[in-house]
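Provenance and format

Records in this collection were gathered into a single text stream. Each protein contributes a sequence line and a token line. The two records reproduced below are adjacent in the stream.
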Amino acid sequence: MIDPKLLRDMQFFSDLTDNELLIIAGIVKKKDFKLGETIFKESEDGQSLYVIRRGEVKACKIAPDGELFTLTIMKDGDIFGEMSFLDGRPRSATVVAVSDIETYMMEKGDFEGLVDNNPRVIFKLMKNIVFTIHSIVRGMNSRYIEMINYMWGRRR
């Protein structure tokens, strides 16, 4: 079991009470990866969510030539794997360690096992996942508008 005090320092878990942290500590597993290690590949099945305690990863898509195209870099406190964690569909990107990293991992089945007896904990964590997805979408929207403005500016 993870020490709940270690979770307290992470933004993703920061709004949980001590009792709620104790509950979550029972389902969270520590998982480390080495520089260059692939954590998961695009289109693989997977239903785990990762919270980065220390280090960096890159999310990539496979280009038509087979090369990895980096979409984003994630660092301390960021989460990844949330899409498959929520919808159960295959991974949408490949995630590779850019440095040695330490993560905390939650499996969907363990998380769902808390729903009946700990709905407030589930609500708080789901809210944090939604906020993360929301910030990703906002960032994508901003980049899209910048791209459109760039294209329209060039045509004039």
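Adjacent record:
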Amino acid sequence: MNAAETLYEQDFHAWTEEQARLLRAGMTGRADLAHIAEEIETLGASERRELESRLKVLLQPLLKWRHQPEARSTGWAGTIAEQRDQLDTLLRQSPSLCRLVPEYIGYAYPKARRAAALETGLAREAFPPTCPFTAEQALDPDFLPGAV
């Protein structure tokens, strides 16, 4: 194990600082390129996980809003607004994620449906089997679904 690999295993923060210094100095031959590539891939995966997670948290109160109009609350509206704001920031910082939103709604929706059923006490079957909201509606800061 060379010094860079040892530092990577023992002190990740120090390793990141050293790798950044080497790259800025143009010393790529001394940089730990294998681990750098691995960390860059991990960052991309992390952003995709955040996209799915935020979509789930957004879809859940949208479903509750639609299916329990009598229980609508400022808390639900606040969660919807906050998740849209966070998604807006994420998608502005990583525009290539925009093309993944419809696909990731498909991944997030079953989880949001299950969570909404648990929170509302409604049967899971009370909610549509596929997401009733388009990507545009989900992200639209002015959209709130009407009651079913």
